[in-house]
Design a protein that fits this description.
alpha/beta, 6-stranded parallel β-sheet, Rossmann fold, 15 helices, 7-stranded parallel β-sheet
Length: 378
């Protein structure tokens, strides 16, 4: 039986939730189902359409109650016109519209709890709880499952843990050509990458730890080139602050803010070590599994999803979160390793991802949840 699934996500920037949306859409199409996405759009929109999904452009991220009501009515019309069988929400504001639309039209509602969603009080906690209103809720890590139970008291049997996945065919060091690497270097205006090449791929926002990395790099003695890859999504003051910090620390010729990247496998291919020093816990931490899939050691903060994906001392090194000195020590440790040891760490990391964190496993588990809910609704 053909399923018609509508995923709802605010925008299609290059982030973990957005990539997962595209991957699930492709899996639906490959399995002869129909994939729909409601979103404002963004860089990954073209990939979603190329995968066979149909996109509906609308500002679904507004928290304005009037807009939430209007989006509810709009989604109801989509359900009716395209015979949508199930709505899958991936963010809180659009989840409210998705929930009420699904309830009004008598179809299943599902949400993936993608983050820790801080709640300072009862009102915000009630707002966040929309992600748990379906018969099942997907958590993208065991860490997030525990968070849901602690925050909302949800029955553990109503939570399905589905870790995000890396496409091990796309993220494969053997599939990288020298031309792709050179094209990316040219696009970024890079020439010789000297010393240990470090890569921090994440949107430019304070909790991702870019500032922490700069402070740690000011303490290390080994030669390096550091690449900060990611868009600021309008946080221009933070970008300016990073440049000021870089120059203040005398790192101007060794740290490059290169913006976003459409060829992330090539970005990983350019580096020796990946760094993910997030100061707040990653709900899952897709960077870690992409880095490992590309055979790269990773230095990451010791909390959140990193504890579930990285085998410390075997596929990467974990450091105390938010601690500049601890991060500098971890970088020194990996820099002092013989190349053979770093290669071995990378090989073990790739095998770990192939065994436990593939896109195929993630999409298969997600489609299984769809089947389960749709069988229950008939």
């Amino acid at each position: 039986m053909t399923h018609r699934i509508l995923q709802v996500i605010p925008e299609m920037y290059i982030g973990g939730a957005e990539r997962t949306t595209v991957e699930v859409a492709k899996a639906l199409v490959d399995a002869h189902h129909e994939a729909y996405i409601a979103t404002l759009g963004g860089p990954l929109a073209d990939q979603a359409e190329a995968a066979g999904a149909r996109l509906f452009a609308r500002d679904v991220k507004s928290k304005n109650p009037v807009m939430i009501w209007r989006n509810t009515q709009w989604m109801r019309r989509l359900i009716q016109e395209y015979n949508i069988d199930l709505i899958h929400a991936r963010s809180r504001a659009p989840a409210w519209s998705a929930y009420w639309a699904a309830k009004a039209e008598g179809i299943p509602y599902l949400a993936t709890y993608h983050g820790t969603y801080k709640a300072q009080g009862a009102l915000k906690r009630a707002y966040n709880a929309i992600m748990t209103k379906g018969p099942l809720t997907i958590a993208n890590s065991g860490f997030i499952k525990d968070h849901i139970i602690a925050e909302h008291g949800l029955d553990p049997d109503r939570i399905v843990v589905i870790p995000r996945g890396a496409n091990t065919e796309q993220f494969d060091p053997q599939a990288l050509s020298p031309d792709r690497l050179q094209a990316l270097k040219s696009a970024w205006g890079l020439h010789d990458l000297t010393g240990l090449v470090l890569l921090l791929p994440a949107r430019l926002t304070p909790w991702k730890g870019q500032s922490l990395l700069l402070e740690a790099l000011a303490q290390v003695q080994f030669p390096f080139t550091a690449l900060l890859v990611g868009e600021d999504q309008g946080r221009h003051e933070y970008t300016a602050e990073l440049r000021r910090t870089r120059d203040r620390l005398g790192l101007g010729d060794r740290v490059h803010l290169v913006g976003g990247c459409q060829d992330m496998p090539a970005a990983y291919g350019l580096c020796d070590v990946v760094v993910s020093p997030s100061t707040e816990p990653e709900a899952f931490g897709r960077v870690a599994i992409e880095a490992m899939a590309m055979g790269k050691p990773i230095v990451a903060s010791d909390h959140g999803g990193h504890r579930e994906t990285i085998l410390s001392g075997r596929t990467g090194i974990l450091h105390a979160p938010g601690d500049v000195h601890a991060l500098a020590q971890a970088l020194d440790q990996v820099a002092q390793m013989p190349q053979e040891s770093r290669d071995q760490m990378g090989m073990m990391g790739r095998q770990h991802v192939v065994d436990h964190f593939s896109t195929q496993a993630m999409t298969k588990a997600t489609l299984s949840v769809y089947d389960r809910l749709l069988k229950r609704s008939h």
